[in-house]
Amino acid sequence: MFERDRQTVYVIGGDGTMRGVVAIFEEFKRCDLRISITGIPKNLDNDIDIIDRAFGFQTAVESAQ
């Protein structure tokens, strides 16, 4: 990633993934790296307050039926 001069990291996942993103962000900050991180929420619980439906929720519902 560093050798290719990447400036943005996109991460898709649930709660654990987003906690990992925070750790990655802190490491980038500690190393003074100018790399932005975009977290895209995806979880089966559909418990993300700012969106109507999380990626993965509808698939889980359809699979359960």
Notes on the structure:
By secondary structure, this protein is α+β, with helices and mostly antiparallel strands. It has one domain (1-47). 37% of the residues lie in helices and 18% in strands. The chain contains two helices and two strands. It has helices spanning 15-30, 57-64; strands at residues 8-13, 36-41. Strands 1-2 form a two-stranded parallel ribbon. Helix 1 (15-30) links the parallel strand 1 and strand 2 (36-41). The longest helix has 16 residues, at 15-30. The termini are far apart. The model has no long low-confidence stretch (mean pLDDT 79).
Q: How do the strands and helices of this protein lay out in sequence?
A:
Blueprint: E1 8-13, H1 15-30, E2 36-41, H2 57-64
Task: State the total count of DSSP E strands.
Answer: 2
Percent strand: 15-25%
State the separation between the terminal residues, measured CA to CA. 41 Å
How would you sum up the major sheet? 2 strands, parallel
Percent of residues in helices comes to 25-40%
Individual helix count? 2
Give the overall form.
elongated
The secondary-structure element order is EHEH
The side-by-side strand order for the widest beta sheet comes to: 1-2
CA-atom Rg in angstroms: 15 Å
Q: Can you tell me the number of structural domains?
A: 1
Question: What structural category do the secondary elements indicate?
Answer: alpha+beta
Mean pLDDT: 79
- Uncertain residue segments: none
